[in-house]
Amino acid sequence: MGPVVGQLIDLLAALLLMLAFAMITQRRILSLIHLFTVQGAILAAATAVVGWATHQPHLYFSAGITVVLKVIAIPLLLHRVVNRLNVRWDVETLINVPTTMLIGIALVIFSFNLALPISQLASTIARGTLGIALACVLLSFLMMITRSKAVPQIIGFLSMENGLFFAATAATYGMPMVVELGIALDVLVGILILGVFMFQIREQFDSLDIRHLEKLKED
Amino acid sequence: MIALLALLVSPLAGAIVLALVGHRDAARDVNVGFSAATFAAACALTAQVVADGPVFAWEREFFIDALNVFLVTLTAFVALTTSIFSRPYMRIERDRGKMNGARLRLYHSMYQLFTCAMLVALTTNNMGILWVAMEAATLTTVLLVSVYRTAASLEAAWKYFILCGVGIAQALFGTVLLYMAAEKVVGVEGGALLWTNLQGVAGRLDPNIMTLAFAFLFIGYGTKVGLVPVHNWLPDAHAEGPTPVSAVLSGLLLNVALYAVLRCKVLTDGALGGPLAARLMMGFGLLSVVVAAFFISRQKDVKRMFAYSSIEHMGLMTFAFGLGGPVATFAGLLHMTVHSLVKSAIFFAVGHATQKAGTQVMEDIRGLVKVSPTVGWGMMLGTLAILGMPPFGVFASEFLILTTAMREQPWATPFLLLALGVAFASMFARVQSMVFGETSVRRLPHPPALVPVFVHLALGLMLGLYVPPYLEQWYRQAARMIGG
Q1: CA dist B229 to B158, B257, B288, B330, Å?
Q2: pLDDT above 70: percentage of residues in chain B
């Protein structure tokens, strides 16, 4: 390894954070899917770089899974769903964009503070990026809260998963292989179920607006 | 080891077989058959653990000790009785057009897969696999909750998926942090996620990382336990899914989630040596008890009311485990068992009652005892048991929890008593008017399965009067392990 590799990882981490911000402000569903695809690619690149720098061959597998699942399979699936349901129009957010940005910045500061004491303890070369990983998770969380349509919520869910994978790479050299495979399987099955759900929701409500899903409430 | 293999393979095989033939009439019996095989394997495993002590299997990836063996048996038992209950229940649902062949196939297959996921979560030694199995259990139950395909059930399932998905993602972050803390001590090659390894070195895990890790793990698995304020998915999922699913959600899944929290608590206590985990558990447990009790008094839907009662009881258990000490932990484990038995019995009775009345609105259900005394009395006795009337087991465990709380944390006692009182008043009044009085309900086309109801209630009664010595031995061992 060397300073160059460390800087490369920092660069990729910074790109991930920027993409997370781009996602919370993006209104068009198609652009959201593109952003998600790019995020997956950067995640895979970061994983592979860490693997190369530290001679951890299982991180290549992990990067491979990310490419197959999050750069190819899931975006394809999302494109199909969006085409079939014809929901390519713009979506409005529940909170306006500048406010969302401000909340996002606050979240980033919060996660950096939270991660500061413990990222010193990590043994990996990517330890400085643990705060970024946590920020990505929280920003995706914010995105799920501020969107009222089903597809952006799902993309938020998936990008949260990306943040978690990045955290695993930053904090340790990835989880043990069997666990990583299990997580990948769960994500894949989850996204398939959600895809089926979207068709059923559409059939029931003639819309993918989650605001229809507010009948079950306490009086 | 063979017993463990059979325990995990039987529900998995059941899921595959029922995915192919689940729509046939015989599928209901096949479902019972596989559940019975699972239960038999659980009994064999229990006998082995009782005879030889803790069992490891497959390079220590799986292990059975006093804490999880009783949960394994309980899970397999309730899964069996629920499958017996679901035979007539699903037959009636199909006759009424709420279920069809494809949905029944999905239902039966997912029921077995759900059992399998829970058993893997209980028996695994690997904290990562525990997470994977919990997520798998979530996915299967999402499909089970949405099986009716109505607007309300889709909404409930969507909410369940998103809330629990987000929650459990926090638990994954916690697991990553746990791995990070462990890796420094155990090393990457040393199985740094194996619970038994972690427990051995808990004192050397970094306290800073473990504090943060436990916070995330507690939020994550706490969402699945149904702790307030992340409980919103629970009443909807219970009310809108089929009743057998409500029974296994309340009776089993919440227990398994609490079990995950307990495993994490042991490690955190070892690392911190301080009361952080205990305080968090007491605080959120107490909050859940109080909030749920007041929500119970406002419910109109019978299944929602009992779902809130589950939140209340899970809160009480979390509080008990937070209290710690041999008595409170013993009481928490006992409460886990009796709540699981009694609550699933109540859901069985409620399931048939709502089928008779054709509604879940409590005001429209009247005079159950006149049409079918067994369903009516089953519901009445179940309610009395869950409200903590002696001589049922819930009374014994609640009494132990309350007396320990008075001694150790006196400030909490008034809240607990208030909440239990509110829950008692509101639930008893409603159930009484559903069970007695003039009737408006119809007869069912098929005889209901009431054996499970009374078997569960009898066991709940027995545990109130007499805890068999080997069971007590188990509870004590388990309690010692989780900080008794």
Answers
A1: 18, 16, 8, 26
A2: 99
Q: Is a pLDDT exceeding 70 seen at residue B393?
A: yes
pLDDT score for B446: 77
Question: How far B162 CA lies from chain A's nearest CA (Å)?
Answer: 8
Residue B442 phi/psi, 5-degree rounding, is -100, 175
Residue A144: closest C-alpha in chain B: B162
Name the more confident of B305 and B274: B305
How buried is residue B359: exposed, middle or buried, by Cβ count under 10 Å (0-12/13-18/19+)?
Answer: middle
Q: Map residue B289 onto helix, strand or coil.
A: helix
A186: nearest CB among B132, B152, B155: B132
Cβ atoms within 10 Å of A116's Cβ, excluding its own:
12
Chain A residues within an 8 Å CB radius of B173 = 134, 137, 164, 167
Q: What is the pLDDT of residue A219?
A: 55
B94-97 — which CB contacts under 8 Å span 24+ positions? B95/B445, B95/B446
Query: Which residues have C-beta within 8 Å of that of residue B26, sequence separation ≥ 6?
Result: none
| Three-state SS sequence of B230-241 | CCCHHHHHHHHC
Global pTM?
Answer: 0.94
Mean pLDDT along residues B7-14: 95
**Distance, CA of B213 to CA of B231 (rounded, Å):** 21
Give the model confidence (pLDDT) of A163-191 as tens digits: 998 988 887 877 888 888 888 888 888 88
Give the pLDDT confidence of A114-135 residue by residue, as tens digits.
888 887 776 667 667 888 999 9
Q: Which residues, other chains included, contact A98 with Cβ-Cβ below 8 Å and sequence gap of 6+?
A: none
* Helix or strand (DSSP H, E) at B262: helix B254-272
Q: What is the mean pLDDT of residues A64-81?
A: 91
Nearest CA-CA partner of B399 in B335, B478, B315 = B335
- Chain centre distance of CA B115: 12
**How many whole angstroms separate alpha carbon A118 and alpha carbon B210?**
10
Contact between residue B26 and residue B41 where contact means Cβ atoms under 8 Å apart: no
Q: How far is CA B440 from CA A108, B304, B347, B364, B450, in A?
A: 59, 21, 20, 8, 21
List pLDDT tens digits, range B71-122.
Answer: 999 999 999 999 999 999 999 999 988 899 899 999 999 999 999 999 999 9
Q: What pLDDT, on a 0 to 100 scale, did the predictor assign at position A54?
A: 82
What's residue A195's pLDDT? 83
CA end-to-end distance (rounded Å), chain B: 29
Residue B126, beta-bridge partner list: B194
- Alpha-carbon span B214 to A52, nearest angstrom: 32
- Chain A: give the shortest CA distance to residue B288, in Å: 16
Q: Is B468 left (phi over 0), alpha (psi -120 to 50) or beta?
A: beta
CB–CB of A200 and B208 under 8 A? no
What is the spatial distance between Cα A63 and Cα B405, in angstroms, rounded to a whole number? 51
Peptide bond into B391 cis (omega under 30): yes
What is d(CA B279, CA B277) in angstroms, rounded to the nearest whole number? 5
**Concatenated DSSP letters for A107-164?**
HHHHHHHHHHHHHTT--STTGGGHHHHHHHHHHHHHHHHHB-BHHHHHHHHHHHHHHH
Instruction: For residues A185 and A179, give the distance between their C-alpha atoms in angstroms, rounded to a whole number.
Output: 10
